[in-house]
# Entry
Amino acid sequence: MPATTTARATEELPGETVDAVVIGGGAAGLNGALMLARSRRSVVVIDSGTPRNAPAEGVHGLLGLDGTPPAELLERGREEVRRYGGTVKTGEVIEAAAADPSADGDPRFTVTLASGGTPADEGVAGRGGTTLHARRLLVATGLRDVLPDVPGLAEHWGHSVVHCPYCHGWEVRDEPIGVLAVGPASVHHALLFRQLTDDLVYFTRGTRLDEDTRARFAARGIRIVGTPVDQVVTAEGGGVAGVRLADGQLVPRRVLAVTTTMQARTEGLEDLGLPMRDLPGGMGHHFTTGMAGTTEVAGVWVAGNATDLTAQVGACAAAGALAGAHMNADLAIADTETALATAQRRITRA
# Structure
């Protein structure tokens, strides 16, 4: 059934308290907002415009949309949210915090944006520009990939330098691939990329390999290079030419796979007091959540890569949808309690 609600202007922000503010406009945030908007909830999405997968040519492993450019997929999502009356605003959240609850105890939050936007409500003191008021929050800020400090590596990120065999594997199949080790997780990484090519080199970069792992690598034909890595060399026509070792040798490679340090984006969210969890070996950190993205802070949900660091786009979208549905259910219960209290007060006064 088509939506009949007239969409608001692209970035016009409401001055009244809205049912939900979604912080993050990726797959998780937009699908959560879509569920809320389709439930006739007033919802505002704040999107920084810096998605994790921006360098990628296409989103893969997403049924029915495989190969869709990330920017195109997100634009479709934004238009779908607006179609049901939701608002999508490009901006940066500099502070999100709990506010005094309503008279009947319903949670309230304030979300302050950096100045410089086009707000409908300006009256904010301090460093921010616009403050939104919300009953519920969905945090879908995603994560930031931190690459190893290898000269020449970062410029090829998302193209000749990849991290996910499911996101990019088919596209780099049969290429000479090198795995730049960062720790124990890289061993599993190598086994996954070995499925994609017969020509795989594992650069240990000072990490330890036990004899059992070396035997497994030998059995799969994975070559081990223990000489320190000096830099990644760019080919004349672009892309990766190979890895230059400390002894001057160039190991030709067309693709490099690396496990990144994955850090949930937490900027501006500190005052919410959401619990965090660190991954072993310093490989990242994320928000901790319960069922459907619930958190220890009443009224706040988290979905997508901010809590599930390894989730692909489809899983992030599904998590956002589930969180949005649970948020709507929570709001429905609160609305009913408020209506009941109001009705009882009328009876008392009669």
